[in-house]
Amino acid sequence: MRPTDLELLHVPGVPAVLPDGSRAIVSVVRPDLTADEYVGHLWSVDLDGGAPPRPLTRGHRDTSPDVSPDGRWVAFLRAEPEGKPQVHVVEADGGEPFRLTDAPLGASEPRFSPDGTRIAYLARVPEEGRYAAEGKPGNEDPRHITELKYRSDGIGFFRDRPQHVFVVDLPADGERPGDVPDPLALTSGEIGVAGARWLPSGQALVGVSARHASRETDLRADVVRIDASPSAAPATPVPLTDADAGSTLGVDEVLPSADGTALWLLASDLGPTGRDFVAAQVGLYRLPLDGSGAPVRLTDPEEDQLSGGLAEVDDDALVLVERRGATHLVRISAEGERTALVEGQVVVTGVAAAAGAGGTGRLAVVSATPSSPGELLVVDPLDGTREARTDLGAPLRATGRVREPVELHATAPDGYPVHGWVVTPDEGRYGAGPHPTILMIHGGPFAQYTHALFDEVQVLAEAGYAVVLGNPRGSSGYGRAHGLAIRHGFGTVDTDDVLALLGAALEDPALDGERVGVMGGSYGGYLTAWLTTRTDRFVAAIVERGFLDPVSFVGSSDIGWFFGLEYLGDDVEEHGAAALAAQSPMAHVGRVRTPTLVIHSEQDWRCPVEQGQRWFVELKRRGVAAELLLFPGEGHELTRSGNPRHRQVRFEHVLRWWAAHLPVGG
Length: 666
Prior knowledge:
Blueprint lengths: L10 E2 L3 E2 L5 E10 L4 E10 L7 E2 L5 E7 L5 E7 L6 E6 L6 E2 L7 E6 L5 E7 L26 E2 L3 E2 L5 E7 L14 E2 L8 E5 L5 E6 L12 E6 L10 E2 L9 E8 L5 E8 L13 E6 L7 E2 L7 E9 L2 E8 L2 E7 L5 E5 L4 E7 L9 E7 L2 E8 L6 E3 L5 H4 L8 E6 L5 E7 L3 H4 L4 E7 L13 H8 L3 E5 L9 H5 L8 H13 L5 E11 L1 H12 L5 E5 L5 H7 L6 H5 L4 H4 L1 H5 L14 E6 L7 H12 L5 E6 L6 H4 L2 H18 L5
Parallel strand pairs: 34-35, 34-36, 36-37, 37-38, 38-39
Antiparallel strand pairs: 1-3, 2-3, 3-4, 4-5, 6-7, 7-8, 8-9, 10-11, 11-14, 12-13, 14-15, 16-17, 17-18, 18-19, 20-21, 21-22, 22-23, 24-25, 25-26, 26-27, 28-29, 29-30, 30-31, 32-33, 33-35
């Protein structure tokens, strides 16, 4: 890939399937470098394969489809240029969409009611006098903050704009409304709700809410029931799991079973404190709705980490399980029996089944591979037989600029196995090597590099670099013990693992062991900076959106009040200042001699910009070659969802930096 090839990344969203199982509706979005926005449409995909995919809508950015129970309508989100997404409806066979919402801060997650007459959606409700379209922040009243939780990366301050559930009526007989109809608020107040889904009766919805008394000092969240009757609105959500009564779950997602007898939950057990989140693997739970018992975990808490995304087919749950750089689709029954449906070197990101489809009904599955950012597959829910129905990766592959990763296995000094990949540049253009090599480290730390096409690696390989990347201890996808291995031990076995992986890769004569750089973002920025305090073997480094000083991180980060405490043990009274300093790059910055480019976003509230600014200043004043690249208006997710133009410019600076310190021959 070249930086301008970002426009060729056509990424599908979570699909929706018509009730008869004949077609799937899926959004496909790409970065547009000219508009400096993400653009895309809804596509109709024939699951029989008899007709090619065709565009269903042609808006600026159309996403998040949901199909009505009778299959006639598709609700979705449409955002105009520089605008907020609003709920629209279009006939499933095509036509001119009409708008149903005018939420001041935008709407999300539209869902048809079981009878198809109403659509529920989520929207943030701004406090009076704030976030006006033409307003100036400097004219607003000050924010009076009394609790620990008050802002989040990618959202901003949220206590003055809680998220609530609304419903809007679908016009009778599908008549186009003259004006946007008035919505009905089902929830209100300072405590928000997420992930609302209709119960089959249509009388209520279920969602996720941190509504318990200790919500400000722990990470738990409950499943709540939301009355949908107009006469009761807005009503106080009723907890179905209850942290006040001792539930230790942090619920991420809820899906009612089709028969209305139970709820499927994605949740992690956060222990008695409600903050035991380190490697607390997300699992599948089933909660009976008749009050007969507590949620029952159906996946292995030691082995299975589930990604977001729940669906159901023939009374079984469909879940996405992380596994050694892959994300597999697994079918799990109410008794815990499991069938792997989609395995291998794939990263499943979404699944949908036709409402009411039996065990022979087909699934629409979105899955990324080493050569595609995502394709829609039709999958048999019994044996996993699958066929691709799209080829969204074709434009990028046609450039000839996609390099396939090769799996890499190494052994750490203590005998622990380490798994990763190496990607090398095109031998026809750059020769057989040895190539300058870059060690790349992921964030998290409880996350994983995957088999999916990765623009960061592809851009470096296209420029002539070999790239080594992998999943050291602390990563997800390899079991809970793997993820827990660095708790109160940042910079220990994780350091050993990434260096072992690099060493194994450098045994290949195609990689140049004398010309090696290192880069990473977030926790990867931490470990990159940490390595430069331990060794001078790297010719240069890029430290991006890094977690660099656990002391100042507390209070400045949206997760700082608990992250360091649980991961590093930053309670000085309990662990001592020396234990914290032993894991802190900033405490050892005086040892760094490696030329370093620091990249940070000005609106990053996950790893606040002061972390990067201070690292740059401490290096610069000590005479270390250092540069600071700041992106205005961006948050922690710059490399994944930042403004397209900023993503391109960032790539150009990364390549400029490496060209200066690791020039490529050939």
